[in-house]
Amino acid sequence: MMSVTPFPEKKSTLDKKLQAVLDGEHAEIRNEAREFFSRPDMLPPQPGIPKEEYRELTMQWVNKLVEAGYSQIGFDAKYGGGGDAKKSINFIEILSHQDLSLMVKQGVNFGLFGLGVQNLGSAKHHEKYLNDIMNGRLKGGFAMTEVAGGSDVQGVKTEAVYDHATKSFTINTPNESARKAFIGNAAKHGEMMIVFAQLKMNKDAESEGVHAFLVPVRDKQGKILPGISIEDHGEKVGLNGVDNGYISFSNVKVPREEMLDRFASIDDKGQYQTDTPKKTARFFKMIGTLVTGRVALSVASLSAAKNALAAIVPYADTREVFGDILLNKQATQTRLFPLLADAYAMHFATRFLIDKFVAGSPEVETLAAALKAKSSDNAIRTIDEGRLTAGGSGYMAENRYGRMRDDIDVFRTFEGDNTVLRLLVARNRLTEIRKQFNDVSGLKKAIKMAGLAFDNATSTFDLGKGRTKESHLLNPAFQHDMFAKREAAMLYDMTQNIAKAAKKPGGAEAAVEKSQNDMIAYADAYAEKVMLEQFVKAVNEQKDPETKAVLKDVCDIFAINTMVKHAAWYIENGYMKPDKTRALADEAEKLHEKLRPNAVALVKAFGIPEALLSVPRPQAAVAPVKKTGTNGPKA
Ligand SMILES: Cc1cc2nc3c(=O)[nH]c(=O)nc-3n(C[C@H](O)[C@H](O)[C@H](O)COP(=O)(O)OP(=O)(O)OC[C@H]3O[C@@H](n4cnc5c(N)ncnc54)[C@H](O)[C@@H]3O)c2cc1C
Question: What is the reported pTM?
Answer without folding.
Answer: 0.94
